[in-house]
Amino acid sequence: MAAVAEARPQTRRFRDLLEDRRFLAPALITPAALFIVLLVGAPLVLAVYLSMTDATAGQLTGKFIWFHNFTEAWHNDNFRRALRNTIVFTLASQAIVLVGAGILAHALVRPFRGRWFLRLLILLPWAAPVAVSTIGFLWIFDSQFSVVNWTLVHDLMPGGGHFYLYRPVNWVLGGIDHLPWVHVGKIDRLNPPQWLGQPTLAMLAIIFVQAWRILPFATVIFIAGLSSIPTEVHDAAKVDGATGLRKFWHVTLPLQLPIATVALLFGIVFTATDMTVVYILTSGGPFNSTHMLTTWAYQTGVVSSNLGEGAAISLYLLPVLLVVSVLMLLFARRVEVS
After folding, report:
1. Tens digits of per-residue pLDDT, 261-314?
2. Would you say residue 44 lies in a domain?
3. Number of helices and strands in the chain (H, E)
4. Is the link from the previous residue into 286 a cis peptide, with omega within 30 of 0?
5. Which residues touch 311 (CB under 8 Å, ≥6 apart)?
6. What CATH number did the domain enclosing 90 receive?
7. Which of 195, 223, 266, 316 is 20 to 30 Å from the Cα of 162, by its Cα?
8. Is residue 170 part of a domain?
9. pLDDT, tens only, 47-87
10. Domain span at 235
11. Domain tally for the chain?
12. Cα separation of 193 and 197, whole Å?
């Protein structure tokens, strides 16, 4: 009996300890912190170390050369082209994602028959393995069996009429082909465009595929943001006569800016650090014209066996993404507070 009486206070003290925030909070956050340190922190420290050495493939040590790899990479024309491509690739794809996600979210937030099925179809690109879906686009943009080219050059009008899609597309291309950085030419029925064999078309192709991949994720975030707006706000807007674009500009958009900023932040990070789409579709070609920092770092560090310079190239993204993340989070906080 005495032993049982002594055990009860110890059990009670243990339960009180578990309910104490000073013990419970560190106990719950420690596994997540250890996971982040092992999964992110350790490779990051290793990358910083390798970037300051002349390490090559087959070894994780080398002679310290400090910032020589960074300067050597900066003076490489392919690196500067990859940096420019990364900026264009990220900004263009995220612009498409934001516009598309906003339109889809406003359409899918309203009740209609079959809405759940349409939401499922929109989520499929995000749920499907990226390698499988990108290989599908590799066939779609194939030089000989492209579905896009077949649709462009064949008559789409049933009956006796004629409608060739390449004609209005050529009209659009004729307007943008005068830009100094755009060189696409016009579509010829007998010589369809080589989507992955021409630099400008290859960039357009990988931008489209990346936007297609990120669009479902941003759409879900936008739907969550729209669903969180109280119905009283919409009712008050109707009473005040705010409808259509006026309601969107003065009511919906200000309330949705914080969640849109978060979606944009995740999209920028996912896109700038992704190499799968570019690697599968073009592998940086043609003639190194579509390399991103991620693929050029892989090409330099793994394929060319220069681990030090490859690590330095990959680390160029770190300060840029850090600054972008801090600025966007500050903007989201200011908008939310105001």
Report:
1. 888 888 898 898 889 999 999 999 888 999 999 999 999 998 998 999 999 999
2. no
3. 17, 0
4. yes
5. 47, 48, 50, 51, 69, 297, 301
6. 1.10.3720.10
7. 195
8. no
9. 899 999 998 887 778 888 989 999 999 999 999 999 999 99
10. 78-143+194-337
11. 1
12. 8
